[in-house]
Amino acid sequence: MSRQVDLILKGGTVVNQDGTGVRDIAVDRGRIVAVGDLAGIVAAEVRDCRKLHILPGVIDSQVHFREPGPTHKEDLETGSRAAVAGGVTVVFEMPNTKPTTTSAAALADKVARAKNRMFCDFAFYVGGTRENISDIPQFEKLEGSAGIKVFAGSSTGDLLVDDDAGLDQIIARLSRRAAFHSEDEFRLLDRVGHQVAGDAASHPVWRDVEAAVLCTTRLCMIARKHGKRIHILHVSTADELPLLAQYRDVATVEVTPHHLTLSAEDYARLGTKLQMNPPVRDKLHREGLWRAIRSGLVDVLGSDHAPHTLEEKAKPYPQSPSGMTGVQTLVPVMLTHVNQGRLTLERFVDLTSHGPQRIFGLSRKGRIAEGYDADFTIVDLSRSETIRDSWIESRSKWTPYDGERVTGWPVGTFIRGTCAMWQGEILGQATGQPAQFTESLQPEQTS
Ligand code: DOR
Questions:
Q1: Distances (CA, A) of 356 to 58, 90, 306, 328, 378
Q2: pTM tops 0.90, yes or no
Q3: For residue 322, which atom of ligand 1 is closest to its CA?
Q4: Residue 419 domain flag
Q5: Cα-flanking dihedrals φ and ψ of residue 4, to 5°?
Q6: Which domain holds residue 157?
Q7: Closest Cα to atom 4, ligand 1: which residue?
Q8: Is 208 a catalytic residue?
Q9: Any idea what DSSP says for residue 199?
Q10: Is the CB of 263 under 6 A from ligand 1?
Q11: pLDDT tens digits for 210-265?
Q12: Alpha carbons 24 and 10: distance in angstroms, whole number
């Protein structure tokens, strides 16, 4: 007797723990039920994936979606439309909203807003502050919590824990991995005079390499002192890398597509559009980050999608806010690097699926394997396109890659078996649900 399932993805080249090869995938009730030989399995829907690569769903573990608060830049719906348009299936969203996500109530509010309104699955970081230190163990266990995020250097918004005593108290209480914006606030304050009015190219002179190195050193030392796990977000300097290599027991590393793709030379062309914290730096740092991709030091890619409107970005530096969109362009920009031979497709999957699954302990995500969620990023590796602002789903409607030719394009996004995007069209109902983590499984959702 044949077995009936919801969906078969047929003839695609699957990249997973078995390597890369043509395999069929059977999906039923949102989960992968078989991979490879599907003899005896029939499906309500068969999707032809010949000539396409099927990757485990891309997990972007750093985005800013602005809701609640400055939703004229973005909201959970528009940000998640951008995610699925770009082939991203799960996002971890940051706490520098208004109000900040620094209480159980604020987290519950975000989760309620997001369920079945976001197009992708999600988790929200809770901001660690001096005021909520005693609640940290509780925050890590809540539904939809990605764990704790700390701004050790100030960026957009006013979340900040700059001193060793504050960081020490937060890190001491962690049980999950916590994420850090690592720029030394004291040095940033000292060097603010290096900002040149009207010249965004002075941004990396102000927020210099030493500011990042100092802060990452402090965080690594405190983490090892307490035996706790930290995640250094958007590492931007070659100088932090040897240090991070010495702290692999406690520290994991994120880099961003913009730090791997753009460089200080681009300030002349992009001006404040390139302004980001930590800054895009000169090419020597970019080369260092690529070496760390190749050596295995980098654990994950995050887009740090940080939308601001073009009007806001057009203010003269330094009144201009730091941040650029990125969640929708992560896949095509990085696949272009794959096509240019800078990393393998398998390393891309390691950075965007296996890596986040491994370091954050995601449950049922990040692999194309029996019993896992049927989250897929389906790409056409040979398709060339020109990225345009008009393609961008973010409410801020722009990208630093406008006009850039890329090769390698997301053509399908599946979230727990539901097709959220196919050939550029965002389909159907938003079905987003909180991602689950093995260290904080929610009892009623574990079936
Ligand atoms: O450039 C940035 N913008 N870096 C951050 O850390 C925050 C972000 C934002 O929220 O705009």
A1: 9, 10, 20, 18, 19
A2: yes
A3: 1
A4: no
A5: -95, 125
A6: 58-360
A7: 277
A8: no
A9: B
A10: no
A11: 999 999 999 999 999 999 999 999 999 999 999 999 999 999 999 999 999 999 99
A12: 5
